[in-house]
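=== RUN LOG ===
request id: a7f3
mode: sequence -> structure
chains: 1
length: 183
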Amino acid sequence: MSDEAETPTEATAAPEPETLHGCPVTWSAGQQVLHVPRERYSEVMLALAGEGFDLCSDLCAVDYAGSSSRSLPDGISAERFEVVVNLTSMRHRRRVRVRVQVPDADPVVPSLFAVWPGTEAMEREAWDMLGVAFDGHPDLTRILMPDDWEGHPLRKDYPVGRVPVQFKATARAAADRSGTKGA
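=== RESULT ===
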């Protein structure tokens, strides 16, 4: 045995956190998850497109108001909204999920339309349902709700209500109500 004090070795030091393009990476269900700061969103997404991520298979927004159940890596602060983008590289057979925190006070991120034109409808849906806007989008108008609808119905603070639904009467429905057999 040596009388010298033991010094920590590289093997005992904590590993450096995994990063991609300078952004923290976590893993979920075997999929790489990239946590991108909002101010670097455009830059990182362009870099991923340049690496062969040629398909944006999904883009959605999430409202985490009143919820603290999500895990984020060190250095990423939770905000009310989150934009989640799933990219696929067909050539490299890889997928990456990108998560961006979006504050309630300024729910805006850059549009990805110029890079992946297929995001046009997905960004409109995120704006229509949750009120997250996409700067530079060519036609950020409602896609699911009527044009004159006020508010964004998937926000956690949106009042729960009832929208009356009117059904067209059919011969069978009228016969069922009257108790007679329809034709």
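=== NOTES ===
Residues 19-178 form a domain with the Beta Polymerase; domain 2 fold (CATH 3.30.460.80).
The radius of gyration is 24 Å.
=== END ===
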